[in-house]
Amino acid sequence: MRALGIYVVLLLAAVLPARGQTVVFSHESGFYADTFSLTMQQIPADSTLTIHYTFNGNAPTECDAQYREPIRLSPECYSRSGIYRVPTVPEERWFQPEGVERIIVVRAALYDTNGYRRSLVTTHTYLIDSLLGRRISLPVVSLCADSLSLFDYDTGLFVPGWYHDPHFAYSTGNYFQKGRHWERDVAFAYLAPDGGKLLQDCGLRVHGNSQRVLVQKGLSLYARREYGARDFRYPFFDQRSRGSYRRLVLRPWSTSWSSAGIEDWLCQHLADSLRVDNLATRPVVLFINGEYWGIYFLEEKADEHYVEERHGIPDKEVDLLAYWGGEVENGSAARWNALFQWLENADLRQGQDYAYLASQVDVDALMDYMMLQILILNDDWPVSNTRQWASPNGKWRWIFFDGDGALSMFTDRSLILDYMTYHFVVPNRHTSRQSTLLFRRLLANRQFLERSMARLREIANSQFNYHRSSALLNDVVKQVENEVPYQIGRFDKPSSMVRWRIALETIDDYLRTEPEAMVDEYARYFGLTEQPEGICTVYDRLGRKVDEGPCEELRARLPKGIFFVQQGRGGETMKWIVE
After folding, report:
1. Measured between alpha carbons, how far is 70 from 37 in angstroms, rounded to an integer?
2. Which of 108, 337, 366, 484 could anchor a disulfide with 53, C-beta 3.0 to 4.6 Å?
3. HSE-up of 160 (CA within 13 Å, CB side)?
4. What are phi and psi of 154, to 5 degrees?
């Protein structure tokens, strides 16, 4: 047994990198005006070891090029892999650009005469203006990973691969797999134009839900001790004073529901200073293995580590739930389920019941969360994109994330209020009884309803004041506008600068007019202002709103068919058969 133990130790010594051995580059990662000659050296020097390197993003092996003399950085150093040509979605959704921009990524390591790696892999990224033909004005994120970990049929993160079922083409594929087993080791570099930088290894997973089937995929980054650092230690965000993060997300431009691309960024900044947990975010340009991958938004990840970082509650003590308790992301749903069961029969018009709810839920924070979703007219809520958390003895709070379907999608302001109150005869994908139960119970309390009305008006006049909101819009446009043409060429989203400008104009019009109009609609919808007598609302058999107006006039102008009619807000629903 002792002999076996000695053999294992010797075997590990032959395979694992030696401590202290490293490859040092003459130039740091970053932005450079012109080309230069790159040199590498061993620290400490060891004549029995040789340096091997790659330009294609893969970790070097003993079979890759051996470093012998300084390397003049030039287009000859670009990766020749052409990974942008690998289909990452079903064929009918695939878009392949004619070509992509490239930058130079160099990865190097030490090997002994037996072919064993004796150092960690050193990775550097170089953005050279004279080679690119431009200076990228946004921060750059560079990810380097072995190509097989991203594109292999069986295990690649980015491809339909083994797990793709043609019968369920838009909900299956390797990129829909989750969990630690689907995390890959990557070299991460954050390079700011002002010279700031962070380089470290980390874990990479595909991020998001249905958007995983997009060509430009969302990505999650995981700092772990086993990769070398427990945290990403860098002040990425102006919205936060701290400079340490356990998890980060790269949110792709393409997840925007319009051609504007910037809705989520804008909503997150509009949420700043509200009593809402929101995510810090900033635009970046992504390169993968040296190839251009478009505009992304680097942001905080809405998980238990976010709660720890922002509120100081140990992540192991956080109960974090999604889909109104339908999915446990951390901790337990026991407290929430008990509260939800109690809510089924609670009457919050009674002071005792309201007081109990207020002891379990941060009502003021929830109020701001509701008012924010209403003011941005979020078309992907309340069923989707909900996440609530609580500490063992704390109150439930909500994290606002994903504003991609907001700001320009609605034509009927009352529809978001219908969603919020489950005001439908037939269920639909936007709303459900479960997702609206808490809202509906609270809105039955007249005092809460009137307070929410006052708070809605206050937010509309402050955070959503057009002077402030238009300044935020102009800010993000200024940051990204030089990069949008390259995003167009890479992913065809948006399809043109004209379409992008039109989408921005729509958002600007929305910010100018809709918040104030929403305040009036909220008052009318909930009877907080005088309303005409005998007003009816008509829905078709799918629960879609058809018409609204004086009851006696509606039947005369409806086409033949079956309709469901509600007299007043919260009134009894009747069935009309028009022949």
Report:
1. 6
2. 108
3. 19
4. -85, -40
CA distance 572 to 551: 13
Q: What is the pLDDT of residue 529?
A: 75
Per-residue exposure over 213-229, b if at least 16 CB sit within 10 Å of its own CB, e if not: bbbbbbbbbbbbeebee
Backbone angles phi, psi at 124, to 5 degrees: -130, 150
- Tell how many helices (H) and how many strands (E) occur in the chain: 15, 26
Contacts of 5 (CB under 8 A, 6+ apart): none
- Give tens-digit pLDDT for 40-51: 999 999 999 999
Report pLDDT digits (tens) over 460-502: 999 999 999 999 999 999 999 999 999 999 999 999 999 999 9
Residue 39: C-alpha distances to residues 53, 203, 371 (Å): 12, 29, 58
With 80 as the cut, is the pLDDT of residue 408 above it? no
What angle do the packed helices 334-345 and 433-443 form, to 10 degrees?
60
Distance CA 578, CA 558 (A): 7
Q: Strand ranges (DSSP E) for 405-542? A: 535-539
Tell me what the pLDDT averaged over the chain comes to: 91
Main-chain phi, psi angles of 347, to 5 degrees: -125, 100
Q: Of 427, 437, 432, 383, give the one whose Cα is nearest residue 405.
A: 383
* Cβ-contact 429, 383 below 8 angstroms: yes
Give pLDDT, residue 19: 54
Other C-beta atoms closer than 10 Å to the C-beta of 557 total: 10
In the numeric block, the tokens 């919205």 are attached to 239
Q: How many Cα atoms sit within 13 Å of 18 on the Cβ side?
A: 19
Is the pLDDT confidence value at 76 over 70? yes
Give every CB contact of residue 347 below 8 A, 6+ residues apart in sequence: 353, 444
Amino acid in position 26 = S
Q: 569 with 444: CB under 8 angstroms?
A: no
* Residue 161 near residue 174, CB atoms below 8 Å: yes
Hey, is 26 helix, strand or coil? coil
pTM of the model: 0.88
Q: Cα separation of 509 and 406, whole Å?
A: 13
Stretch 369-387: mean pLDDT: 94
* Beta carbons within 10 angstroms of residue 234's beta carbon: 16
DSSP labels, 341-356: HHHHH--TTSHHHHHH
